[in-house]
Amino acid sequence: MKDYGENEPDTLDFESHGLQCALRRGPMGSWCGYAAIPVTHPLHNVGYHQSHPLLTKLWKTRQHEPIGNAGIIPLFCADSTKAPSMDVVLAVHGSITYSGDRCPLEDPDGNWWIGFDCSHAGDIIPEIGYNCPGNIYRTIHYARGECEALAGQLAAVTTPRGKTMKRLLAHCAMLLFIAVVLRWAYLASVLP
Question: What CA–CA distance (Å, rounded) separates 100 from 159?
Fold first, then answer.
């Protein structure tokens, strides 16, 4: 059996579109890619299979595009009566197959990690020698490109008014600060 990826590292960490990204070689030798969204992102703590209204705008664009390299099972199972989920909307190799509070095999870091893997029909899975005619080994360069595309799509998801959650939290913090200052001024004027 050919040694696929023998000249590639087993991990790669990088940043794309302002998000932390990671590539990890999975247990079967195929690449898995992950992008981290911070606690301020509107999709933080949303499971990849959960519907979310903020994905509707992206879905309205995506549903008229070719399937491309996304997995078809989530598309066939999508419930058109609800807001879409990440595994339906985000265009990445094999669709989204992971969401969690950590990059796999790492400790939780406060981010919410969204990921995909390169162990689908049409992929060569190195450790089990799954190599049907026409299957392709997905290199680290391919996986990085998919991960960068994922990060770009996640970075584009914003709150309904186009403000990022970070800006909304900043506004809330400013209002809280003003309330504390006003309260302090009031107490200073009424207390001896």
Answer: 21
**31 and 89 share a domain?**
yes
Q: Which of 49, 33, 45, 53 is nearest to 149 (CA)?
A: 33
Length of the chain: 192
Domain count, the chain: 2
Q: Where are the beta strands (DSSP E) in 47-160?
A: 98-100, 112-117
Asked whether residue 115 falls in the same domain as residue 185, the answer is no
Q: Work out whether the CA dihedral 52, 54, 60, 63 comes out positive or negative.
A: negative
Decide if 71 contacts 95 (C-beta within 8 A): yes
Give pTM, 2 decimals.
0.75
Cα–Cα distance for residue pair 3/21, rounded to 1 Å: 26
User: Is residue 95 domain-resident?
Assistant: yes
Residue 5 lies in a domain: no
In a domain, 4, yes or no: no
What does the block give as tokens for 81?
């009566």
Please give the single-letter amino acid code of residue 138: R
Range of the domain at 184: 161-192
| Per-residue pLDDT reduced to its tens digit, 59-108 | 776 666 655 565 555 554 555 656 678 887 888 998 899 999 999 889 99
* Per-residue pLDDT reduced to its tens digit, 130-162: 667 788 999 999 999 999 999 999 998 875 544
Written as six digits, the tokens of 93 are 């190799």
Residues 174 and 32: their CA atoms lie apart, in Å, by 40
